[in-house]
Amino acid sequence: MSDHVPGVERADPSLSAAVLIGVGQYRSDFPPVPQAETCVRRLAEEFAAPDLWGLRRHVGSIELVNPDRATVLEAVGRAAQVVRSPGILVIYFVGHAERFGDQLCLATADGDRSRPDKTMVTVADLADEVSRNGRPGTATMLLLDCCYAGHAARSLPATAVRAAESAGWYLIGAADRHSPADAAPGDETTRFTGALLEVLQGVPGKGRSLCGRDIFTALTEKLPDNPPVHCETSAGSHPWMVNRRYDPPVAAAPSGSGGPPRRPRMVPPIPPGLVDRPDLRRALIKSLRDSAEKSVVVNAVWGAGGFGKTTLVIQTCHDPAIDELFPGGVLWTELGQDIEGADLASKINDLTEQLTGTRPTLSGPQEAGFRLGEALDACPQPILLVVDDVWRDEQIQPFLLGGQRCRRLVTTRVKLPSLAAATPVPIDRMSDDEAEAVITRDLSGLPDDLIARLLRLTGRWPLLLNITNRTIARLAAARRPVADAARIVADRLGQAGPAALDDPVTFTSQHRTQLVAACLNASLDELPAFARDRYLELGIFAEDTDIPYTALALLWGESGGLDRFQTEQLGLALIDASLATPARHQPGLRLHDVLRSYLREAVGPDRRTRVNAHLITAASRLLPEDNNGGRPWWTLPPEQDYLWHHLVDHLIGAGLHAEVDTLVVDLRWIAARVRRSGPVRAEADLARSRHPDAAVLSQAIRHNAHLLAPVKPDQAIDDILASRLDGNPQLQPRVAAFTRTLTHRPRLANRWPPPDQPDPALRRAIHTGHPYGIDRLYIAPDGTWLATTGNGRDATVRIWDTTTGTQRHHIDTGHPHDVDQLDLAQNGTFLVAVGDTSMVVWTPEAQDVAVLRVDGAIGHVVLSTVENAVFVGGTRGLYGFDVLLD
């Protein structure tokens, strides 16, 4: 990218494209728009400016003036083929538009007002062209300078941004769904595009680059009497172009971070049909505000599954108060019960990449957490980190490292020791008013006594209230009176539900399971038999993950004979029934883990095995024939993102353990996984295998992970992998077989094994998080833990488990400079860290800290060899202290 401005983040112009469409003359009775051609020309000039974007004019940008429908669609499809991450596709339109049903139709020169959906370009047409010609996850900015622009949001695929993969559409429109746009006679440009051109000159107070949300906010300020509209998706946070009025803060980037921090906003969209819980929302905002001046604070939303923890946090993060409290942005990650090891490290690496633009290759959660902490510390403004659905201490601990200006917001259903000091916001059943708003949504005429009965039967549980509401609505849609439909559902719940709902003291987890089953069965009974069977099959999919229609179509095509269209229609029906929610990052659906747990229990292990086998059988048809009789899973189509991430899980779920053992040690699969997702995912696969080579490969990949970072061309990963594995006697047959497949292109091959391989005696490399390296190191007498101090202005002591390499304890001594002296009692019962005028005593068993200051500077400290005593020599004399460990 020869025209790149050093140090500035933006969508790569060499991997981006723009289609600029201006229609000012029409063959039908639309009035002319004389500003259209000027708007297109001016925007093309701005986009080409090196200090803004550097998009090559007439190469990266396609300028269309008064085009017909076919020309527009051909240009959009051609442009979509160019875009690769971290690029972006921009589609700009200025001209007339018509509403037709749920579609916004953009009037091309040959548009006919009597048949707008057939002769004009609909927003759905644009989405289809991008989907058909672009890569999955193409970030698309849609700028509509036309009347009724907000109507376009009804048909946009609302996907999001995750890790390095930009995805989704972000709309900025000149008017809402019902209003006209403004083009004053005699003006050079339309009002909206004129304001946009002004915004592109820079926005004071914003970051190094402008994203869609920054531009929308600035446009709103410039057009207060006719504000623009936007479609709220995470794609709006994609860095687009240089902010010409950026004033860089004085802040050093952490070592290896890849540049200055970004301002992420990874908040999922607000779920449809949300009922506000204002008391809880205000309590959560207050807890965040009250902790704003403290260091490394954790706020926890605690409650049972399905009580609305995640929904509350999403709603809160969309509150303007959050932008005020956390101008550095919002990071978001979802865990779940099964996330651990390399999978957990990968989630942490995702967040670091969001901040720095560079993806770490760390496979240990501890090391990944330290790198994230460094990136958070480099953020000049407070940032909010949301960790959703935490189950265990070891899951949350890596997120608590570093980041003094970062606030952690955790959702959990378990009271964890690591969160004992967190500011809690408990969430329980909905209030009567809130629950009534959910149960009566889109329903009118329900008697008060029946509403009260339904609230009792659902336990005022948000998840079940939504399902019950949709069940009643489906019954009522069949021309049945609403009250009769509600009474039928209430009777059904009364027969199948638990009897202890009125007594919360005796309400157990078994009762909760019974309540979920009653509500789900009442809803499923209203579905056709084939739809019930397909829904039950969803329990095989990964927890807290989007289930894309591309993967569902494979499963349901094999198990039920559904095609892609029928798959999407059934998926939408399940979403409408509140049995699933829309996927966050791509077309598809998502399953609440409470419902997933129920489905897995309902179908049982034998049927789960058969359903997984159906998915594997269907997926294998996407592969070419293998002469050796195996299945070459490394040739999966690139758009099958879900299968790339979860294939090993489903092979195991299908009982194909032998195939897993063969696959994950095949260097063709490992190379493909590293190319696509980095070495951490390959390590996660190897951890699932019992093959004797799996542990050796895992260690080799871990030792060389820093060399397996993304590279261009990406096929070079194959050569690097073969080079780094060369010389290991156990792996030589695999390396030889792998290199025989690397043909038909120039490559570099070892003449002898590289001399910089890690020593076989190396057990573990630990990234300690000391920013200037280690100064002092002590090991406990029993060898179970290590203590380290850092160089420079590092006043921390870190305690390490020698077996796992994980941090047991982090002691902030509070010394104004660093730790001058570190001493360990011979019996290992306590540790003393000394600063200028104070000392800290730490007891490893209780992990308690005692602090004592003296008058004057401390010169030297000696620990008694026969008793728990400390002797301190300072400028004011000699001190003696007993260390009381009771």
The main sheet comes to:
6 strands, mixed
The number of helical elements comes to 28
The count of β-strands is 30
Spatially, the strands of the biggest sheet line up as 2-1-3-7-8-10
Mean pLDDT: 82
Distance N terminus to C terminus?
65 Å
Cα radius of gyration in angstroms: 30 Å
Fraction in helix: 25-40%
Residue stretches low in confidence (pLDDT < 50, at least 5 long) are: 1-8, 158-167, 250-258
Q: Strand pairing plus helix content: what structural class?
A: alpha/beta
Strand content: 15-25%
Shape: globular
Short description:
The chain is an alpha/beta fold and about 900 residues long.
Give the topology, please.
Elements: E1 17-22, H1 36-48, E2 61-65, H2 69-82, E3 89-94, E4 97-100, E5 103-106, H3 116-119, E6 121-122, H4 123-133, E7 139-145, E8 168-173, H5 191-199, E9 209-210, H6 212-222, E10 229-230, E11 241-242, H7 278-290, E12 297-302, H8 309-317, H9 320-325, E13 330-334, H10 341-356, H11 365-377, E14 383-390, H12 393-396, E15 406-412, E16 423-426, H13 432-439, H14 448-458, H15 462-477, H16 482-496, H17 509-524, H18 529-536, E17 547-548, H19 549-560, H20 564-576, E18 581-582, E19 588-590, H21 593-620, H22 641-653, H23 657-664, H24 667-677, H25 679-686, H26 692-703, H27 716-725, H28 732-739, E20 774-779, E21 785-790, E22 796-801, E23 807-812, E24 821-824, E25 831-834, E26 838-843, E27 848-853, E28 858-863, E29 869-874, E30 877-882
Parallel strand pairs: 1-2, 1-3, 3-7, 7-8, 12-15, 12-16, 13-14, 14-15
Antiparallel strand pairs: 4-5, 5-6, 8-10, 9-11, 17-19, 18-19, 20-21, 21-22, 22-23, 24-25, 25-26, 26-27, 28-29, 29-30
Helix pairs in contact: 2-4, 5-6, 7-8, 10-11, 10-25, 13-14, 14-16, 15-16, 15-17, 16-17, 19-20, 19-21, 21-22, 24-25, 24-27, 25-26
